[in-house]
Design goal:
Layout lengths: L1 H6 L18 H8 L4 E8 L7 E7 L1 H9 L7 H29 L6 E5 L2 E4 L1
Antiparallel strand pairs: 1-2, 3-4
Length: 123
């Protein structure tokens, strides 16, 4: 090989290529680290009635394990995650309802009643 280097000055042996390091997705990284992972992949809304729609969720086994340890039942991972998602939606609904109820209770109405002789009863 030395004689080639003399004939072709400045040419060096190509360095071996380093293997490409694959960057892990957030789910892969969480799974590797033993951490729960949940993500919303898509949200689809009915064009005719935007009150209807669906969510596509992605999770890892650590997320399901955590939910099961918290008492969520289910024969499959999908059932466990669905029960959790329903619980989240229910909690959002209840919080909104409580806020609206609290705001309604703070509203004061003034009732006026004409009792004659130029007098008005206010309550």
């Amino acid at each position: 090989m030395k004689w080639i280097e003399k004939l072709l000055p400045g040419k060096k042996k190509p360095e071996p290529k380093k293997p490409a390091v694959k960057k892990l997705s957030p789910k892969e990284q969480a799974t590797k680290d033993g951490e729960p992972f949940i993500d919303i992949l898509t949200v689809e809304i009915d064009a005719d009635n935007p009150s209807y729609g669906s969510f596509e969720l992605d999770w890892n086994e650590h997320f399901v394990k955590k939910l099961r340890s918290m008492g969520y039942p289910g024969d499959s991972d999908e059932v466990v995650v669905d029960l959790w998602f329903q619980s989240v939606c229910r909690n959002i609904l209840m919080e909104t309802y409580e806020q609206e109820t609290a705001n309604r209770d703070n509203v004061r109405y003034i009732n006026r009643k004409d009792i004659g002789d130029g007098k008005t009863e206010v309550s």
